[in-house]
């Protein structure tokens, strides 16, 4: 690292401390959703492989969660694998699934997070399903941030699964379709989502400069604030995180009013 890079790093750290010093912890979001975008483009810009980009993105996760523990964040949802990702070439999907499985096991072994899977398990490899089950069971007692690992996740799929679960629940109770139709409301649907009993995201962060949700938590983000960051996920820094929190705190949330 040359002198210019060292100086730049020092200035960034000093700026981050300044931003953190002015952060109002009373205005920190309780639930943050993260669309971790840009691994492949980061790798391409670095002249490296896609797999290296995914590994670099995976390594950023624990660092990010560490920043969250320094605030009053209670829930973090990390979008690790979408349902659309299953259509990627096998030579990319296979290593990606292995990296994600390692992430799940690492988060569970850390001891600071309560790991919860959100998504469908139908198309996941058996080893991944085992890792998710073991992570949830081994961290169920942890009194720390709830980390939703969105794996095999799609917003439309979640709503479809919620409706299916609601219908199945009614059938198990002997409720007729007419009675169910009369009883359906937004609260009932909410009780069948992957994130039932959790607060909806207050803030959604997407890296890489893309300004869209791509189906992320379609139901839960109706009143969320969005923060779109230009940097690719592996290059996401604490100062970028603090800027997102500062931007969120400066907004007046009207909940559609």
TrEMBL record:
Keywords of the record: Magnesium, Metal-binding, Transferase
Record-linked InterPro entries: UPP_synth-like, UPP_synth-like_CS, UPP_synth-like_sf
Stored CDD domains: Cis_IPPS
PROSITE patterns xrefs: UPP_SYNTHASE
EC number: 2.5.1.-
Positions annotated to bind substrate: 38-42, 54, 82-84, 86, 88, 206, 212-214
Free-text cofactor note: Binds 2 magnesium ions per subunit.
Keyword Transferase among record annotations: yes
UniProt cofactor(s): Mg(2+)
Catalytic residues in the record: 37, 85
Record bears the keyword Metal-binding: yes
Residues where Mg(2+) binds: 37, 225
Molecular function as annotated in GO: magnesium ion binding; prenyltransferase activity; Z-farnesyl diphosphate synthase activity
UniProt cross-references to NCBIfam families, sorted A to Z: PRK14828.1, uppS
Function: Catalyzes the condensation of isopentenyl diphosphate (IPP) with allylic pyrophosphates generating different type of terpenoids.
Similarity comment: family membership: Belongs to the UPP synthase family. Z-FPP synthase subfamily.
Name this polypeptide is given: Isoprenyl transferase
Organism whose genome encodes this protein: Streptomyces doudnae
Organismal lineage: Bacteria, Bacillati, Actinomycetota, Actinomycetes, Kitasatosporales
């Amino acid at each position: 690292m040359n002198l210019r890079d060292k100086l730049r790093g020092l200035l960034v750290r000093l700026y981050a401390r300044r931003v953190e010093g002015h952060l109002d912890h009373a205005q920190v979001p309780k639930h943050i959703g993260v669309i971790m975008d840009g691994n492949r483009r980061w790798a391409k810009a670095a002249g490296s492989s896609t797999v290296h980009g995914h590994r670099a993105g995976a390594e950023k996760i624990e660092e990010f969660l560490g920043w969250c523990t320094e605030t009053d964040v209670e829930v973090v949802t990390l979008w690790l694998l979408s349902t659309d990702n299953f259509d990627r070439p096998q030579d990319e999907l296979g290593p990606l699934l292995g990296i994600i499985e390692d992430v799940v096991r690492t988060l569970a072994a850390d001891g600071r997070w309560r790991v919860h899977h959100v998504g469908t398990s139908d198309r996941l490899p058996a080893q991944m399903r085992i890792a998710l089950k073991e992570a949830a069971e081994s961290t169920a007692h942890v009194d720390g941030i709830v980390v939703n690992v969105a794996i095999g996740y799609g917003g439309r799929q979640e709503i479809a699964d919620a409706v299916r679960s609601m219908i199945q629940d009614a059938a198990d109770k002997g409720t007729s379709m007419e009675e169910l139709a009369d009883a359906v409301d937004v609260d009932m649907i909410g009780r069948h989502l992957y994130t039932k009993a959790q607060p909806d995201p207050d803030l959604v962060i997407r890296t890489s400069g893309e300004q869209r949700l791509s189906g992320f938590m379609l139901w839960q983000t109706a009143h969320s604030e969005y923060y779109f960051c230009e940097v690719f996920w592996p290059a996401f820094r604490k100062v970028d995180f603090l800027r997102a929190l500062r931007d969120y705190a400066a907004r007046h949330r009207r909940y559609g009013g």
